[in-house]
Design goal:
CATH class: Alpha Beta
Strand content: 25-35%
Radius of gyration: 22 Å
C-alpha cells in the first residue's frame, strides 16, 4: 500500500504529455546537473608540537592501529571532514623527509624553530584517513625548501607514493594541475611570493590564463602577504584582481596564519588567507582560528561557497565546524 502511494505521488508530480490516442504518459525527469565538492584549507604543518602529539599517540599492540601512526590522532576531526568532499586542497608548509626534526624541542624564536621537516608517516595517515577524496598539496611556500632541493624531491616522492597530488613545486615550471570532476575540469595554479623568482607573478598569471582558456574552473592558490595581519596588504589585493582579470574563478591564499577579511571582485570570491588548518600556534584566537571553504561546483561554474570554522587546539587536534564555532567565527557570520 505504501509503495502504491509513493508511485501514485510520483506520477501525480510528473508532467504529462499527450499521446496520439489522446491519453497521457509521464515525461522523464531532466537529467540531474553534475556537481563536485572541493575543500580548501590553509596552512598544514606536521612538525614541532604536532609531531610530539602524534608520537605520543602511536598505536600500541593493545590499541586499534591507525595507518600513518599517531598522525591519525591529529586528524581525528579533520579527516572525516576531508573525506566528505570529492577534492581537498591544502598548503603543505614544509618538506616530507626522513631527516630527524630540528624544530621539535627548539627555543621559540630560534632559527631551528622555523626549520620544518615532516615524517613520511604524516602523508600516509592523511591518505589513509581521507577515504576516496582526491588530495592535493600546494608546495609553493617559504618552508618547502627548508631541506634544500633534496627535501623538495623527497616531498614529491612521498606525496606521489601516497596518491597525493601537488602543484607549485619550486623545481618545476609553473603548470596548472588539472583534475577531472563530475562538474568538469578543475585547474589548480600556485603563486609563491617567496620563491625568489623575478618572474613569479607574471609566470603565474600566464598559467592562470592558459588554465582558463582550456575551459577549466581555475583556482589560484597563493602563498603571500604579511604574517598575522588580518587585512590583506594593498599589493596582495592588486595582484588578486590581476589573477581574476587573467581568468581565475576563485582566489585563495595562505601564509599569514590568520584569517584575513575576504572580498569579491567581478563576482569572484577573494579569500586572501585561510589561516591555520594544522599548526601549533596557540597564543591568541587570531592564530588558533582558521577557515575552511567547502566549495560546490556545478557544470563548470561556482555554485556555492560554505565557510566552516576551524580551531587548532593544544592537543594537536584541529576542531571542525560546530566544535570550533563557539570560539571561532567565519567572515560571513561577522557581517
Amino acid at each position: 500500500m505504501a509503495a502504491a502511494a509513493i508511485l501514485a505521488a510520483a506520477i501525480a508530480c510528473a508532467v504529462l504529455l499527450p499521446t496520439t490516442e489522446g491519453e497521457s504518459v509521464p515525461r522523464p525527469a531532466p537529467p540531474a546537473k553534475k556537481s563536485a565538492t572541493v575543500l580548501l584549507l590553509g596552512d598544514v604543518m606536521f612538525d614541532r608540537a604536532i609531531r610530539i602529539a602524534a608520537d605520543a599517540h602511536l598505536p600500541t599492540a593493545s590499541s586499534s592501529a591507525q595507518a600513518g601512526g599517531g598522525y591519525g590522532y591529529v586528524l581525528t576531526e579533520l579527516a572525516p571532514f576531508i573525506a566528505s568532499h570529492d577534492i581537498a586542497v591544502f598548503n603543505l608548509e614544509g618538506p616530507v623527509t626522513e631527516n630527524p626534526s630540528t624544530s621539535t624541542g627548539s627555543t621559540v624564536g630560534s632559527l631551528r624553530n622555523y626549520i620544518f621537516t615532516f615524517s613520511p608517516a604524516a602523508p600516509a595517515a592523511l591518505r589513509a584517513a581521507s577515504g576516496t577524496t582526491t588530495l592535493v598539496a600546494g608546495i609553493g611556500n617559504n618552508h618547502i625548501g627548508n631541506f634544500g632541493a633534496a627535501g623538495i624531491q623527497s616531498t614529491e616522492k612521498y606525496l606521489t607514493q601516497n596518491g597525493i597530488g601537488y602543484f607549485g613545486s619550486p623545481l618545476k615550471e609553473r603548470e596548472p594541475l588539472f583534475l577531472d570532476t563530475q562538474a568538469g575540469p578543475v585547474a589548480l595554479v600556485g603563486y609563491n611570493q617567496f620563491s625568489g623568482r623575478p618572474d613569479e607573478a607574471s609566470s603565474s598569471l600566464k598559467t592562470v590564463r592558459a588554465a582558463h582558456d582550456s575551459g577549466a574552473f581555475t583556482i589560484l592558490f597563493a602563498h603571500w602577504g604579511d604574517e598575522y595581519a588580518t587585512e590583506a596588504p594593498a599589493y596582495v589585493e592588486r595582484l588578486a584582481r590581476e589573477f581574476v582579470d587573467a581568468g581565475a574563478d576563485l582566489v585563495v591564499g595562505a601564509h599569514p596564519h590568520v584569517v584575513e577579511t575576504p572580498d569579491v571582485y567581478k563576482d569572484v570570491p577573494l579569500y586572501y588567507s585561510l589561516g591555520n588548518a594544522v599548526f601549533d600556534q596557540y597564543w591568541s584566537t587570531k592564530v588558533t582560528c582558521g577557515l575552511a571553504l567547502s566549495v560546490t561546483l556545478r557544470e563548470g561554474s561556482l555554485l556555492s561557497v560554505r565557510e566552516v570554522p576551524l580551531l587548532i587546539s593544544p592537543s594537536g587536534i584541529t576542531l571542525v565546524g560546530d566544535s570550533a564555532a563557539g570560539t571561532c567565527k567565519t567572515p560571513a557570520s561577522m557581517l
